């Protein structure tokens, strides 16, 4: 008499001895089992309903879902839902067409596994063409499966990525220059890899790539001292995120501070319109269109309250640098002033710079001191974007390595900016006399000219004239003190004049 229905799992293979018995393999799941007396139970398996099988060949499944942990996963990911009863290893299958058909179906083929005896799966089709198509596709998959497995292993060794992990990844990257790039994507490059693209050969291609998506460049791992690389080539090639070591006070970080000065240090600066031109090449000056070059004439007149290294008196000089595109970058320097860091004054000397791409150029002042060994020691700096410069006499506030203001320290300069195009539209040569004459005229007007009283020039000249007179009086005062200094002698232990 039957007790209750359950599911059992086969412990061994069993082949039917009679027509009313089940044939099953090891680990087969028999459903709707009715336990009977006498050591024989009845159940459903392989499309056969309520046939007999020996009870000592099976074990009862307390929780069928627990014994099939992958069952829930298969049901969720399969469109068949709970109708899915398992998967078949296609490369290990053998396909055989049944000409006689089966169960009133004319077009039937069987799938069997050589590793499992007495097991087969019969599949019926509606027509001979459908049957042949099924058989053809299964055999093609079986033949190409080994090739795909071998290719996957080769990829795993080549890219050092586990094949199982690669199959789980949803995010993927595109090669540079492909059309699959999207503005939502961002690629990260170490500086060593980015340097292969920010050059004359590949700079334009990298700029076009950055028009399609974002790129991030970060310092290489070998920079154990947290030093920084030059960010200018990455910026001009369109990279949106150029990561630097902010803890290091060096020139790249000072250039970074100057770049974001135009946006009020909000962390965002719009790229120059020139870089968005399709014809623009970062390393080709002739590709600049719709941009007016300029020439800058700078005179360093004096400084005040320069910081000093150690306890000595500094001998300062100023290095003036234009940093930007490769064809614009240059630097010049003044003479050094001996033993004067309080209020050094330099002779009138114009420094001329011609800039073809002023939208991507920075003007940088660096004050050094020269020691007894002719070594240069950093004292102060100031860096500005060229597009933010104003003409005239300017007091330049100096900053330290960390771009922090130095109290009372500043440079006094005169700056003039001229258009650098001639009437025919070509760039004026750097050695042309017109620019030098205009700079020298401005210099002579400052030191030798006598402008009208109350005029605009007089108001600019008056502070410099007062500054010069005060310095002369101070020098005369120190000279007179040295001449009047008494000489002390020591006689019999007493100090006498």
Automatic annotation (TrEMBL):
- Where does the PH domain start and stop, copy by copy? 107-143
Keyword check for Hydrolase, yes or no: yes
Record's GO cellular component, any one?
ruffle membrane
User: What species is given as this protein's source?
Assistant: Spermophilus dauricus
Which Gene3D superfamilies does this entry report, sorted A to Z? C2 domain, Phosphatidylinositol (PI) phosphodiesterase, SH3 Domains
User: Keyword annotations for this protein?
Assistant: Hydrolase, Lipid degradation, Lipid metabolism, SH3 domain
Full protein name: Phosphoinositide phospholipase C
- EC number(s) per entry: 3.1.4.11
Q: Name one GO biological process term.
A: positive regulation of epithelial cell migration
């Amino acid at each position: 008499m039957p007790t209750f229905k359950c599911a059992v799992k086969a412990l061994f293979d069993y082949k039917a001895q009679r027509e009313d018995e089940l044939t099953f393999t090891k680990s087969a799941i028999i459903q709707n089992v009715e336990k009977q007396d006498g050591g024989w139970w009845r159940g459903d398996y392989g499309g056969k309903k309520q046939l007999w099988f020996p009870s000592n060949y099976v074990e009862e499944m307390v929780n069928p879902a627990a014994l099939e942990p992958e069952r829930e996963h298969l049901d969720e990911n399969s469109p068949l839902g709970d109708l899915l009863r398992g998967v078949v290893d296609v490369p290990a299958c053998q396909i055989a067409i049944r000409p006689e058909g089966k169960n009133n179906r004319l077009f039937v083929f069987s799938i069997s596994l050589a590793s499992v005896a007495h097991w087969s799966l019969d599949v019926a089709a509606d027509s001979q063409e459908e049957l042949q198509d099924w058989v053809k596709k299964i055999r093609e998959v079986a033949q190409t499966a080994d090739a795909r497995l071998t290719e996957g292993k080769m990829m795993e060794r080549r890219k050092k990525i586990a094949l199982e992990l690669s199959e789980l990844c949803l995010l993927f990257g595109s090669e540079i220059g492909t059309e699959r790039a999207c503005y939502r994507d961002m690629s990260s490059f170490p500086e060593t890899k980015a340097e292969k693209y920010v050059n004359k050969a590949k700079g334009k291609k990298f700029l076009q790539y950055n028009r399609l998506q974002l790129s991030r460049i970060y310092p290489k791992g070998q920079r154990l001292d947290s030093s920084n690389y030059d960010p200018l080539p990455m910026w001009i090639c369109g990279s949106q995120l150029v990561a630097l070591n902010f803890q290091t006070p060096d020139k790249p970080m000072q250039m970074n501070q100057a770049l974001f000065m135009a946006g009020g240090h909000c962390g965002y600066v719009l790229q120059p319109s020139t870089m968005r031109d399709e014809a623009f090449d970062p390393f080709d000056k002739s590709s600049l269109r719709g941009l007016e070059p300029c020439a800058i004439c700078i005179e360093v007149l004096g400084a005040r309250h320069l910081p000093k290294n150690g306890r000595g008196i500094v001998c300062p000089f100023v290095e003036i640098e234009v940093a930007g595109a490769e064809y614009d970058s240059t630097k010049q320097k003044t003479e050094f002033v001996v033993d004067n860091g309080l209020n050094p004054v330099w002779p009138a000397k114009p420094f001329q710079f011609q800039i073809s791409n002023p939208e991507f150029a920075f003007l940088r002042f660096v004050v050094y001191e020269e020691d007894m060994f002719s070594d240069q020691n950093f004292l102060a700096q100031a860096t500005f974007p060229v597009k933010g410069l104003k003409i005239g006499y300017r007091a330049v506030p100096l900053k330290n390595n960390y771009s922090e203001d130095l109290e009372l320290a500043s440079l006094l300069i005169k700056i003039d900016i001229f258009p650098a195009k001639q009437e025919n539209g070509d760039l004026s040569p750097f050695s042309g006399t017109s620019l030098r004459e205009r700079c020298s005229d401005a210099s002579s007007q400052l030191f030798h000219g006598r402008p009208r009283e109350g005029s605009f020039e007089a108001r600019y000249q008056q502070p410099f004239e007062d500054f010069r007179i005060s310095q002369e009086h101070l020098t005369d005062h120190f000279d007179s003190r040295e001449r009047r200094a008494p000489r002390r002698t020591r006689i019999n232990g007493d100090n006498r004049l």
